[in-house]
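In this notation, each integer encodes one residue's backbone shape. One such record reads:

___
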Amino acid sequence: MSSPLELQRSFAAGLIEPAYAAAVTPLVRDAALIAEQRLGVYRGNVHANCAKALAATYPIVRKIVGEDFFVGLAREYANTHPSTSGDLNAFGDALPEFVAAFPHTADLPYLPDVARMEWLAHRAYFAGDAVPLELARLRGVAPADLAKLCPVLAPACALLESRWPLARVWEVHQADYPGEIAVDLNAGPDRILVHRPVWRPRVASLSTGDSRFLASAIEGRSLGVALEAALASDSSFEPGAALSRWFEAGVIVALA
């Protein structure tokens, strides 16, 4: 007799691929044909739910490839990367790499980075809230001591570098975008910050200096080291303006 774990694995496989249904039908009291038909109904629901979950996470990818193609893409992805969590919001983390290797999207070389951006935005939406930094607490800190503190970014923040103009791709696909939907794919490369200032994730294109500074902060560098790295990479970087901008935007939420 199979163990409970083996039975669960057989049943899960039968819900993904019809080829595995024969191993599951003996577990059902009905006749084999009826059991396979019922499994087919469940299988259809599984694929539909997976497609809906991916569509909610990757709306831009869905718009780029089209509804019918996306449904097929979601099915192939679910077959290769079945959900391992009871929370469908956690489903889809491997889609960028899957798309990069998927032969039917080879003519869309920018699509994997678009998917990476959308996954970061999805994570930002569900990230924990952060208490804004009270700048008044820093007024009594000596400059030398301040430089030793490490800037801490909000949990929703993430950086991504791409050869493609990702911020523009994000902008034109937003529901409230009023302008012309056109993207010059040769306008890259781009460095973006994905963050969530209030309720909705946002994507901002970064200068070289801002990107280096925020990357240093994520690496755990001190404020002084992060500012020096930013200035070394971008002579036009203005430390005062940059710090003010990221404090006000809720990107930097602590100095530890």
